[in-house]
Design a protein that fits this description.
The protein is mostly helical. The chain contains 14 helices and no strands. The radius of gyration is 23 Å and the shape is globular.
Length: 279
């Protein structure tokens, strides 16, 4: 029996190793080609950047200059950080309220959040862009409100699952000691919810950082560009693309979020499991 389990373990290890390589290989190709002259990116995409193919950091410099990447990087950081902060704060408080106050209103709010996870984004694209334009949300502060709305479904669901596992006696003891509801939440409940907060932060940050569709629909692109939008400015007339500059810009775009994910990945499963409880 032990030998059979070991055999199956090696099979699964090999299978998932192959899948991992398949996922990582495109990223490796982007990094590899970011150091080549653009003419060789199409001719020899799998070759190492040696000899006359190697251009050093030229593609990176060209990409930064052509796209205004420094400004786009700043706006991406601003939008991602404050959108995630808003999602964590408001969704955790909403989930706590839904869990502790049993009424038709809270049940409706909860099921609306679940419903928002099911509705395809394409169904609300036109309405969203119209309302965002009417409310003057076409700026980095306004889009934070939009991200809060779209990120609330999954976040409230995860926070609600975790809140159900928190013994209510802990909160009652805090209130007996003189805490009001806000003090109870921030001093008692929020620290306990740390694993789920980290998980939601990782998932939402990866989505918002890499998102192209929402900023393209909402933001005034003449004034504000995020990194995914800035990359599109490398396209020239008749579909021509400066592949060298694009590879350099893509590497700059993916490195921060990869570092962030690697640093925080161990918290993902911990947070998901912590919230996987029955109500």
């Amino acid at each position: 029996m032990e030998a059979r389990k070991a055999k199956h373990g090696w099979i699964w290890t090999t299978l998932f190793s192959v899948i991992s390589v398949a996922w990582v290989f495109p990223i490796f190709l982007v990094v590899l080609n970011s150091f080549k002259k653009k003419v060789y990116i199409s001719k020899k995409p799998f070759a190492l950047p040696t000899g006359k193919m190697f251009v050093g950091l030229e593609n990176y410099v060209n990409g930064i200059n052509k796209t205004g990447l420094i400004s786009a990087f700043g706006w991406s950081v601003f939008i991602t950080v404050f959108s995630v902060a808003a999602i964590i704060l408001f969704c955790s408080m909403t989930a706590w309220y839904i869990t502790r106050v049993k009424s038709k209103v809270t049940s409706t709010i909860y099921y609306l959040c679940l419903f928002s996870m099911i509705v395809p984004f394409q169904m609300v694209m036109y309405t969203l862009s119209k309302i965002a334009n009417m409310l003057k949300l076409g700026n980095p502060v306004g889009i934070i409100v939009v991200y809060l709305g779209f990120g609330a479904g999954l976040s409230v669901f995860m926070f609600t699952g975790f809140c159900k596992s928190i013994p209510i006696e802990i909160e009652e003891a805090a209130m007996i000691d003189g805490c009001n509801p806000l003090q109870t939440f921030f001093k008692v409940v929020m620290p306990i919810m740390k694993p789920t907060c980290i998980t939601v932060t990782i998932l939402q940050a990866m989505w918002i950082w890499n998102d192209y569709l929402l900023p393209s629909l909402v933001l005034d692109q003449k004034k504000y560009k995020t990194i995914p939008i800035a990359v599109q400015y490398l396209k020239g007339g008749y579909g021509s693309v400066d592949m060298g500059a694009m590879m350099g810009v893509l590497v700059i775009a993916i490195v921060p979020i990869i570092i962030f994910y690697i640093a925080c990945q161990r918290y993902i499963i911990e947070g998901v499991v912590a919230g996987a409880v029955k109500g």
